[in-house]
Structure formats: structure tokens, C-alpha cells
Queue: 2 jobs
Job 1
Amino acid sequence: MATSPSHSSPESAIIEQVITEFFAKSLHIILESRSPYVSSRNYSVDQFMSSPSSSCSSSSSMPRDKWFNLALRDCPAALENFDIWRKSNLDPLVIDIVLIRRPLVPDVARPLGGCLLRNFSGNRDLALEPKSWKIVERWIVQYERHKSSSSKNHKEIRKCGTKNNGGSSCSSETAFYKKTYERYIILFRSLYVLIRLLPMYKLFRELNSSGQICPLSLSHRISSSIQPFTQEDEAKMNQFTFVPIDTPRGRLSLSVQYLRTLEDIRSEPSAPLSLQFILDYVGSPTTDPFRRLKSLPSARSSPPLVSFTRQHSWSNDHGALASVSHCPSVACSEARGIRCNPSLCLPPLTHHNDHSPPVISESQNAAVTHKNNMSFDEFWPSPFSPTSSPSSPAHLPGQRSPNALQSGSSQIDIAKACPNTASQTQAYSSEGKQQIKMDTLRCGNYRTGLTLVKHHRGFPSGKDDTEKLAELPSSSTQRPRSKSSSGLSLSDKFDDCGFACPFADYKDVTGSCNRRSPDAVIGAVVRMLTTAAPLRQGLSDLCRPSQVFMDESLNPCVQHDQDNTEQSECRASTSEILASVLLKSKTAAEGLEELRRYKEMKESILKRGASWSSDVDSGPKVCRQ
Amino acid sequence: MNCETCQLKELVVEPPEIREVLRSILHTILFHRALGLVRPKDVECELFDIIYVQCEDHELEKKIDEKINQFIGWVEKHPNRKSQVCISFYEVKNKHATWFGNKIERFYWEQWYINLHIVSPKPHGKSHNTKAHVVTGENAFEESNSRCAALGSSLREVLLQIINFVNEKKDHIPPLQNSEIVSFPYEISTPR
């Protein structure tokens, strides 16, 4: 920190420190509200103070974030930049907030820092547009030294002394410093409020909180020189200047020039993207299976058993079995492709997860500024990145929230699809009911999602689109990862489970799922079928034990003296047969038809519940046979 | 000591909007006058596209909400009227002994007048014609949206007006005497 040799007194040191902190605080407030959170370095006040790069920390008498009585959360971008910039308090601090517009790469499923995007634009030969950027705000923090030593500040100091009933010069100076510090406090209050009223803040929040890929991104540039705007740009900008605050030897000033409106930028055309559904989306158990998305392509081409290898993030602790019981067949799951799994393919009888349609917003914020090692006067581009602010978790549609998706593009990404391990699923055939239940629970421990990319003019808005899609409620342990999309990239998640990115190749995904856990698929199907009504005439005898079992649940008066082992053995043999019969590819329509028929049969069975009681007594005998 | 007065731009509001409008304005003013150590909290208006800032002080929030409820109660009894909510900052001077006891004097150094014109929401036009009723309903909806957007814009202007006033006038503010969040005693006055 530059200090004049003629002002080496402790008082001067304090004044210099206050001036330095003024710059730091300004930078902190500005970047906190304009620079998307960088999760690469997690700063804390203690870390900063012990950082060797911060020469000010050793002399700071209080933690940085409490300066000027405004406690702010850590902003790594500000702290890094300040360390780099701070060479002299005499140099102005010019902070340019830059809005970058870059087109999305067409027809390429490429990882964008771990975030995958599939653009099925009709124009597959669309050429890449050049990147464009625009300075939307310019903040200037300056310290101007007084040329004359006998500045008006001496009058101010004397005035403070007069107000203090003519105290000594020392007390008058102290009063002056206190008054000055008070003005700093008020200035930063105003700055904090103003920065949130400017047009850019709304865009910042949209980009920072939404888990969407957007052609717009925010970045910043710090310099010590002021490059004038063109006349045309100047005409579009407003200016606000805070009243300069006098110090004993100079004056601190803060001003901002900002674009009056962002409509011009938002209205600029950009490459449109067509809707594309990833066919292997698996939704939530609360999804209404009869609610079809009209734009869904035919599921005929979807390979079988895909959905049963998809694991889900919601917890199935309390309802998996019951919810599974109504799935009519594998066909239902297979054909649906996008939305099916053992616990999903059901009318939500238990409503154990009463959620609105799922929105999986997985770290798709393209507005993150990557910067760890930036040099002074360097421009920081903001590439698309899956990381986003952890402080702004995504919200479910329908919830009132600043993080709510708004008009523009919407995207729900496949967060993670980790098939169950073979070791877990193999157990079902031998262990029976308990293991089946465990498998069911594990099925809910992974996430899948749907990627819908739609680009509108302006900013992303997934509200209408996402409401149409099934919601994927995540388990309590995994919900923060799926909603806040904080800090982790999709590539990291995929690497964790060793699963190939589902965006890369749909067939590869399904194939890998098949290879990895066929038993899990069979187990899930069997579990559904054992508690379901028979679908085919030939299976009616085999299904009697399941019907008896189900009927027992409806008639609590029936004695439960059956051996669980016997039931599991019976069920296991039945399930093997059923699995072999039912592992045929079916279309979604057939699956739905079967489900409907099953429902009708279920109703009829319920009506005849009383007549089964006599059969129940002879049930074990039938099973043993 | 001078008492600085700020008359804020008049806002035309409907009763359901009173709470949001007053909250945003009062919290913004108090955020600028609560000079103790604060951890600012962003609050997004539910009705308007505005984010204002408040101090994370429960007592302060509670007091403001009480006053707003008081005002809303008054509005319900006196609909369709112009009214003011005043927030004043003062200093308590030495008590003066009088014949009737100790008298506490308040020296007001700043007063903010929030001018509101309360209007009742327009009822939808009645029509026996279904189509016309639908069209009327749509028009009313659009009109309501545009009115709300205009109010949001006016509210933003009021908040900027507060910032300008705070920015320009600082000399009249008394020195900080304590380290509490709410540095200066204040009172919020509503019509009675």
C-alpha cells in the first residue's frame, strides 16, 4: 500500500487504511451483486486475513466484512481482484460490468464444463456467431488528494471541534474522523440499495440462480484507467454520482454509469434452439402416468428395460412397495421411456411424494465467471459453466422465489443416472421380500432428469415448460445438489458414478444400463407383478398367491400365520416365470392399456374381497402345491 | 440543528398493495439510518419487480409490521383517501424539570413523508354476454397488470428518491452514540 513518507504517523496509517478499505468495500459490494459466485475458492474472513498476499490484513483491526458496519458474505471474486489490483490508493478503481452474448453450439452434445447440452436445431449447419460483449455498467472509485494542505477539511475539523463545545484539536479531529466514517457507512448503505435497483441486478439474479444455459453471461473487468464510451453508448446510459466524502487529505468519490434499459440487448436475435426431449428421462413416482407429453416421440424404438435401471433421487422409504404394487407390467415402464421406473409407473395411491412436476436444474448456470488467476487489466470472459451460486438455490416452479425460472429458455438436465449395482439386485431371487424391498429403496437413490432446451428471445424462462414436466423430487440428502447446483459439475457427478454421460449417446446409455443390472429390472417387475392382478389368462393360477397376499392386506382379520419364507419361495418361483413371460417389448400405448385394464380388475377384485376369505384359508396349501 | 424533511412522491395504491409498498419504503429508509453493524437482507417484492434491503433485525421488522397493520386498519375505515405515513428521527435532549414533572424533549432532525393515495380496485364490468364478459375480464386483467407495473416503476422512483436524499444531505445527522443496529430513535406516525 502506497504511503507518503511525510505522513507516517499512526493517524495517517489509519486514514490510509480506511481509504484502502473503502476501495475494497466498494469492490466487494459491486462484484457481490454483479459477479456470479465463484466456487473454486472458498474464502473466509480468517483465510483472507492470514493470506500473505494481503498486506492490509495484518494491519486490519477488524475483520474485513464488518468494515463500515456492513457485514457482507464473502465474495471470492472481489477478494482476489482486490489483492491483484491494490497497488496504490491513488489509482482509480474502474469496474466494468460486461454482458457477454455467445451463441450455443449447434448440433453438438458437448460438455460445457460438465454440463451437457444437446441442441437439435433444425439448421444443423448453423455457423457459429462471433462472441459479442457490451459494457453495461461502469463503476469508478477514486481518491483524489488535495493539492493544497490548507484544504477546507481543516475548516471541517475546526467545525467539529466547535460542535464539541470547543474541545481540543485532538478531539475535534476525532470527531471529524467519526463523522467522516459515519458518512462512509451511509454511502455504502446507499450503494448497497442502489446496486439492487439498477436494471442489471435482475439479470444478475436470473443468470446466477437459474440452472439454465443462457447465451448471456456476466463478467467484469477491473482497470485503473477510464476508457471513454462512444457517444452512442453514452447516450444510452444514466449516471449516478455519490456525493464525494472528504478526508483530511483528499476526497473519495464513487460513481456509476449504467445502461438505462437492457431491452435492446435482450431483443437482439440469437440462434434459436428447437425443443428436444431426452427419451430416457425418468420422472417421479407422483407423475400421473396418463399425462402424456404431446411432443413425445414414439417410444417404440426405446429399448426395453431402460427405465428400470434408472435410479431416482427421491426417497422410497415409505411407500415404495405400495406404490409399486399397481404397475401393470414392464411394458408400461419400457414404453414410457421418458418417465418410468419401478416405483414411478403407478398412480400415486399413497401420494407419499406430493410434489408438483419435477424440475431438475442441475448446475447449468452459464454466467459463472471463472477466475482464479487473473492479471490486472485483463478481461475475464465467462464461459458456460455448470457451476452456479450456492447461495441461490433453484426453486420449484410455482414457488414464489427470486430463483424462479422466468421467460426465456428452460432446461432440465439429466443430473445423474447411476444404475444399481449387480450385487444388490442379484439378491432378490434368493432372499425374497426383504431384499426386494431393499432394491426398491435403492432404486430411489439416484437421479435422472430430462433435458429440455428451448431458447427464446431474451432470458431463460422455464416456468411454463417445466410445469408440464414431471417433477423429480429428490431425496433429502440429494436435494441440495439437484436444486442449488452448487459447486459441482455434471462431469464430476458422472465421474463419481462411472456412468457415461447420458447426453452423449442414448443407445450407449441404455445398453450400459442393461448390462449392468438386469436383475434389478427383473426384481422390480416381479415385485410389481406379485402384488398385481394377473394380466394374462395363462398366468392366473400363478398369480393366485399374489392375489391372496394382496387380499390378506385387505382383510386384517385373516390370521397371519403364514410362513414368510414360504411366501417368498412361492413368490420367487412365480416371479421368475412372470419375468420371463413379461420381458417383452411393449409400446407405451399397450402399457397404458394394460394399466387401465389392471385398474379395472383391481376394482373388481376389491368388490369381491369378502369372497376370497375362504380361499385365503386354503392359500398356503395352494402355494405349496 | 436543522430538521430535514423529505416529501416522497405520491403513490396510487390499492389496499392489497399497501403492505408491500410501505414495507419497501420504510425498510429502505431505516436501512439508511440504522448505522450499527447490520447484515443486510435482500427482500423481493411479491407484487413488484423490485428488491429492497432490510436490516436483519426482528424487532425492527415487528415494529414496522405493527405500524403497517395500524395504517391498513385505518384505510379500511377511510377508503379512497389520500394519506401519509411519517417516519421521524429525533434526539432525546436533557429532561427539563417542570412544575408537572420531568419533560422529555425530542428534537426531530429528519422526517420522511410517505404519500399514498388509496384507491379501491375497479370492479369487473358486468355483462350477460359470455364472450363480452371474457373480453372484459381479459381487459381488466391487462389493465391491472399495467397498473401494477406502473406502480412498481413509481415505487422504484421513490426508492431512488430516498437514495438521492440520503446522498445529498448528511450534515444534519447527529453523531453515532451507540453501537446498536438502530442507531437513532425514531417513530412511525400513521393517521388516526
Note: The helical segments of chain B are 15-33, 58-77, 130-168.
Job 2
Amino acid sequence: MANFFSSRDSCPAVKNILILDSEGKRVAVKYYSDEWPTNAAKLAFEKSIFTKTLKSNARTEAEITMFDSNIVIYKFVQDLHFFITGGDEENELLLAGVLQGLFDAISLLLRNTIDKREALENLDLIFLCIDEIVDQGMILETDSNVLAGKVAIQNMDVSAPLSEQTISQALATAREHLTRTLLK
Amino acid sequence: MAQPLVKKDDDLDDEAEYSPFSGIEKGAVLQEARVFNDPQLDPRRCSQVITKLLYLLNQGETFTKIEATEVFFAVTKLFQSRDIGLRRMVYVMIKELSPSADEVIIVTSSLMKDMTSKTDMYRANAIRVLCRITDGTLLTQIERYLKQAIVDKNPVVASAALVSGIHLLQTNPEIVKRWSNEVQEAVQSRAALVQFHALALLHQIRQNDRLAVNKLVSSLSKGSVRSPLAQCLLIRYTSQVIRESANNTQTGDRPFYDFLEGCLRHKAEMVIFEAARAITELNGVTSRELTPAITVLQLFLSSSKPVLRFAAVRTLNKVAMTHPVAVTNCNIDMESLISDQNRSIATLAITTLLKTGNESSVDRLMKQITNFMSDIADEFKIVVVEAIRSLCLKFPLKHRTLMNFLSNILREEGGFEYKKAIVDSIVILIRNIPEAKESGLLHLCEFIEDCEFTYLSTQILHFLGIEGPKTSDPSKYIRYIYNRVHLENATVRAGAVSTLAKFGAMVCELKPRIFVLLRRCLFDNDDEVRDRATLYLNALGGDGAVVETGEDVKEFLFGSLDIPLVNLENSLKNYEPSEESFDINSVPKEVKTQPLVEKKAPGKKPTGLGAPPTGPPSTFDAYEKLLSSIPEFANFGKLFKSSAPVELTEAETEYAVNVVKHIFDGHVVFQYNCTNTIPEQLLENVTVIVDASEAEEFAEVASKPLRSLPYDSPGQTFVAFEKPEGVPAVGKFSNMLRFVVKEVDPSTGEAEDDGVEDEYQLEELEVVAADYMLKVGVSNFRNAWESMGQDFERVDEYGLGPRDSLAEAVNTVINLLGMQPCEGTEVVPSNSRSHTCLLSGVYIGNVKVLVRLQFGIDGPKDIAMKLAVRSEDETVSDAIHEIVASG
């Protein structure tokens, strides 16, 4: 693993993907590099990168900074802060492409309402999306449509064979939908 | 969820209301996970519980071993459900739990079933999960499916298998290497991402085979690559090929340059940038080659995307270090970036401008920077300070403006690293620009009047003690120094006392006044301060008479210790009190070479003040400790030098062996570092049989076999030779690894009782003259050269024959002699026709050697060299010539 991240001649590698809320708390994070071995180290990294970027305006275009010999590219929307980290020799545009892919895929999945509440309510989709975009640091897919397609497959299939669901399950689904709409 | 609404006067309450996970608790969720065991599974509910579990893990919650096992077993039950969404969550959950080997077995069959399923999503994800959690033995069982998956017509499946292959290559290279035919086929895939993953894997499989990489690059660069990501990879591999073939091109044209240049017109920005960056990083890139790359980077500078501007300015900044002229065209775009919203971009722009700017633009730039300094972070400020330092060295006439700037920012707020960078810069400027000395010293004096960092205060005091007495009016510094004795902590006070003493020793007129001050320090409440004051009063002749200070007192006060402090510290630790007193001459002088080049990472700058911070104990110490712990070698005396490891096997063979040559006065010890790369074998009684028939002066005296060498844990075996004392004997040795090999049962890890004797041929190893040379640098070569005198100087001229470049010839000679290049003279400016290189070292027998090499191009490619050697012993001077003549 260490080898995979250090060598410049090898593939582009992502060290982590972070989605934080407007207070710097975790919504979903995924670390691929062992540069941050403990949860405390991870939290410290998140805290400092959050504070460092807080004042910048990364809402229209993704912004970029160097941090502890890493490149961090970030983009904010509503109360969500998206970050992606790569080594300092990494191609910045390539990392930006991954972040954009993630961001667009999530907007597709959340039907353009990207905020913390929506993200938490669909956290399963977010987890799957992160799982599909990068595998142990290696970029797996960056096209947002393909990504969203891969993640959304389940939703279609679950609702399709309605006949297979038991009555109680169908009721549970309906109840849940109702609560969601009521709470909105 | 449907709780009564609390009063919404608090933001926090509001927030808590939003989250479906508010008040979530590990214990409760683990209870909920029991639904996984229901005979009638509810996929939606199970999905929700898994999401909750993942949420907990994501928030940093940890499961105990028992909890994790319970969850894992419950999750495996969910394979019964045919709900795709749930299955996806199960896959993610299994990866997060990273089950142990005996747990993996439980899910293996389910995953293998999914791997051969008709649903593409199942196949792709099952492959990723299985490869993530599997070990080598299971891998052989599923290898067949993986090879099929690589060429699967569904790109998602193929990518999953290829990416898994990339990860498995780290742990099971021998298996993954067998897939290269399938991977090769996948490189031709029409799916963009598959091609990217296949290319990455293929390159990793073949990376040690230069010819194969070369072929790969030349076939693909003709234009069959679809995805921008794959194209970026190809550019990286291409520049690697260019780098490695740089030494054997005959014509001036660089192979593959056209390909890189063509990529500058690619439609994807990431490819354009990758190519531009690759061109700027070519070895000895010419300005003609640079121009098109600089042009595209210049366009990026005015992009609306911050990432693009950042990437471009960062690359141009690096180019400016080596080719400042090439970047000047971008200066106008660069100046508009100084006000960029993104401070990283602004800082990079400023420092680039400082590197490329000319003398007339300095004042204008400094004005812009002053406005900008207050609103950037310390780490950027350090970068700016360093750029200003090099600017000042470039334009010494501007020292007044730049020194003023430095002293102004020194007075402002800032952390230790930042302040240290400023102080270091001022010190370097004082050392290099004589006119800047007096004003610089006064700035430093003012700084220590109000300095919160003990380290910086003591360093500045030390520096003042060296430079202050040599100025036109030394007395004006005394006030600043003596103030420290009143106002500071004990460490700084002690430093101030030493500095005062130095003024006293160097400047006769000040001596009586210094005595008065030192006597006052005798009543300090700190031991160290009092002791120092007493010591110096006595050393300087405390009677107060105005006399010239004796030479040995000066030596004591100012003489520098010519041995590295780390080495001294180690020797003192090893010294056992006995009749014999500690001999400072026995301390090894070999320095762990400090990186001379300025590293880009902040915090790793060349130190301007005092001694460099002591690094971790050098490998030399580690070797010395290791060897002295072996009784057979204990009486060989002091270790003179240890070579860098020399590989005796090709990369990726069954047994990897390298050798370290340890040189003693009358002995040589070969340390063979062996690694066994076959998991199914245990080696015992490992020795190296050395044939020294081509090394007449050497006689084998001892060898130390290695008892056992299990898989993947390196071990050492040693062979020692006697050689004539103090003589730099050379010779060639052929080596044979001999051992008893035992089969190991991979499942139990136990070795069989019976072993078979076997041998393995290693490559030859040579002891060369350079092994008797220690790399020891001198700080001022000219002084050292002059003080060595001409008594044992030997000068001769040599023709080196045709060489590729001057730089290559210089490197060859440096490596041949094994000496330390001084003052950065190992770097040959491109396109120069002649070059002088200065080397220093210590030859066996502790003889200092200095070498001056003058190279010149003679005829089209022939290189001639004039070699001048000075040393403390004429036989050594002759020996150096011998080395060159026979090399």
C-alpha cells in the first residue's frame, strides 16, 4: 500500500475523500492512505483543513490549497463541504476531476437538493457513491452519470417487483415515505 | 422521529432535529442488527440498519472484537436475500469490517457464487470484496474467474478485476503476473476506464523490464488511448522512458518528445497539463523544448478555475528555479495573480516573480508584497522569505531594500518557524554580502531585545560572537548582549556570557570593560551562567591587563569541532571509564550527507544558523553497533567505512541478496543481506561461499552463517577477510549462496523436518579504491586547499574519450573516486563547455585529500580532464592518480 502512494510514476492516487458539514463535523469520510493512522489523527486533519478553508469561497468553482505536503481540492454547497486529498506530486486537474465526478453524482442522486439533511437521509447512497468512485486509493470511475447509475440501480429494482413484497413491507415503505414528506 | 417540536430558538436544537441519526447509540444499533437473523428478511429495514452501522463506523466508533464478529456473522445471513440494494450494502459492510482469515471462509462461497452470477453489479462488486479480504491461498482458487473477468465485456466488471489486480500485485505479485495476456487484451478495450486500469496494471507488472515498458509506450503513443486518465498515465510512463534512455541517445533529438508536445493539444485539460509538466521536468530541457509547454501554462494562468491557475503557477514556479528566463514571458499574467482570492496562488505567483524578476522591478515588487504579507498564513510567509533571500543573493546591490523588508517583518507577529526563516535569511545575507553585515547585525540585535524564542536568541548570540568583533565598532553590540544577562532566562544568559567573552578575546580595547561585565555574572543564580563566567574570566586572564589573548585560548573559544556532534555523542556513550582517557581522535568523522538542494517541503531548509539539527543516528552507527556485537569481528578495530548496499541478485528473484562492504584497517567484512521471497520455503544454515582467487591480497578469516531465513524476514550472514594493514587492496570476489532448504506447509506455517542442500549463484562483487575513501566535506574549499599547501600536490591530465555530456563525465569521476563534492560543484550547468569540480575526502589511514577537477570539451565529444590532488601524504596523492588512471 505504501508503495502505491509514494511512487510518482505509478497511478494517480486519492488519499481521502471528506464530506463535512458547516461546523466541520463528519457527514461521510473515507481514508485510503495510512498517513492518518488513528481516528484522532483523522479528526485533527479534518479540523485543520476545515478551519483553513472555511473563509474561502468555493461555491462556484472548486478551490485548491496545499496542506502538509498534500494537495487538497474542495468545493462547498449549502451546508456541505466536499474535500479530496492527493499527494503533492499529483496532477491537480485530475484530482479536481474526481471531486467534480463525486459532486455531480451526488447531486444527481439527491435530485439537486444537496444539503446536510438530504445527505444524511440518503446516507446509504452517499456511502455507495464513495465506494464506487475510488477503490483503496485507485480511481475507479469519474463519470457522474455512470456513478449515479451504478448507485441508483438498487432503487429501481427494489420498487419494481412490488408483487414480491409482503403486505407489511409495502406498508412500511409507504409509512416511511409519508413520514419523510411530512417532515420536509 | 415524530417527536413534539421543541422551541426553535436554538440553532443546535434545529440541527439535531434534522438528522435521522440524532441520539444514535452503538448498543441500540447492535440490538437492531438482530433483524438480520429473521427468517423473513425485510430488505429495506436491513439496509437501514447497515447504514446506521456504517454511520457509526464512519463517525469513528469502534466495535470490539466480539461485536465485530457478531455483526459479521449476522451480515453474512443477508446473502439469502435477493434484493440488489441490500446486497450492495452488505458488500460495503464486509469491506468495512475487514474480517479475519477464519471469518473470510464463511463468506467465500457466497461471494464466489456472486462472482459468477449473471448480474453485472454482483460480479463487479463481489470481485472487489473478495480480492480485498482474501489471502494468497484463496486467490489461486479464484484466479480463473479473475482472468475471465479482466476480459469481461461489461466494463464495470473488467475494471473491478483490474483494480483488484493492482492492489493484489503488492501482496501476491507472482499470481498477478500470470495474468499479463488478459491485461494486455484489456489495454485495447474500447471502454475508457478499463483501458486506464489495464494500462496501470500492465505497467506495474512490467515496470522492472525496461524494454517492455519502452515497447508499451511506443505502441500506445501512436494514438489508441481513449480516456484522458489513461493518457495521463501514458505521459508519466513516457517521461520515465525518456529519463532512463537519456544516457544513450546519440543524436540531439529526444525520443518521444513529439508525443509529449502533441499531448499539449489534447482536448482534456488534465492531459495538457500533465504533458506540460512532463516537458518542464525533462532532464536538461532546452529552451526550444520548453516554449510550447510554457505557452499552454501561460494560458491556464488566466483561467477562471482556481485549480487550473494553481496547477499552472506551481509548475511555472518550479521552472523558474532552473530556467528563469523561460518564465519571464508570463510575468504580466503572474503580476495580476498577486491579488488572487486564493492565497496559495498569490504566494506562488509572488515567489515566481521574485525568481524571474530583474533588478529594476525589485522595488515595485517589494511594495506589492508588503501589502500582501499581513493576510497570508505563516507557511506562505516562509516561502516568500526564502524567495526574497535568494533574490537578495542574486542582486546584492538591492540588499538595503530587501534587508529592510526582512527586518520589518521580523518585528511583526509570527510563529517560530516563520521567525526562524527570517533570521536564517538575514544570517545568510550577512555571510554573503559584506556590505549588509553591519545593518543586518543591528537588526538581529534589535530582534533579541524582544524575542520570545530561546532557541533563536541563543543562536543569534552565538552568531554575534563570531561576526560582531570583526566589525568596525564592536562596542555598540555590547549593550544588546549584556541586556540579555539581565532580562532573559538562564539558557539565554549563558549564551550571552559566552558571546561577551568572545568580544573580550578578540577586541583588546574592550577587554577591561568585558571583565567588569563578566565579574557581575559571577553572582548569577544559575550554575551554568556562573561557571561560564568563571571559566572565561580565567581563560582570558582575569587580572584585567590589556594583553593579546593567547592562541590556544582563541582556539578553545572559537575553534570549531571538526567532528559531527552525533558521532561524538555516540562515542562518549560507548566510552567506559578506565585508565585510558577518552581519545577524541577515535570519533568517526563520516558525516551523514546533508541534502544540499533546497527541498520544496517547508521545514526542510538548509539551516542558516549554527549546526544543523542532529538527525537520527546514521546507518554508519547502526553498522558499527551491529559489527561490534559479533565476537568474531570484535578485534578488528574501528570501522572505517561501510559502503552502500550493492545488489547481487536481479530484482524479483527467489532470493534477494545485497552486500554491504565494511572496511577496517586490516580487514574487510562483507555483510550479505538476504531475503527469502518464497512463502513455501524455509532456508537454514545460510552461508555465502566466497571465491577470492581474483583478490590476491585477501585471505578469508571468519564467516558467520545465518541460522534460519524464513519467508520475507531479511537476515544477514557475514564473511570476513584479512588484508594488509592500511593498504587499499582491491579485488574481485565471486559469491555462491549455500543453504539447506525446507518445505513449509502454507496452511500451518510449519516446516518439514528434512531439508535439502542447495546452492544459488550470486553476482560478483568488487572491492574498489573508492571503498577506502570517506566522503567528508569541507565548508570552504579554497581555504582548505591553500592550507594544505603544495608539498604533496600531484597534477596530471587525462583524456576521458567520447562521453555523452560533460555532466556524465563529471559524475563518473566523482563516483570513481567516492569523494564528497564541495560547494555544489557536482552540478554542471547545461550547455557549458568546461567545468571545475571540487572534491574532498579522507583516505584510509585518516589522510585528508582534496581534489580539483577541471573538465573541458576537446573536439566533438571527447572530454579532457586535469586532475590536481593535494593531500597530507604523497603516496596517497599518487594513489588517487592511480585510481583515475586505471579507472
Note: The longest helix of chain B spans residues 228-245.
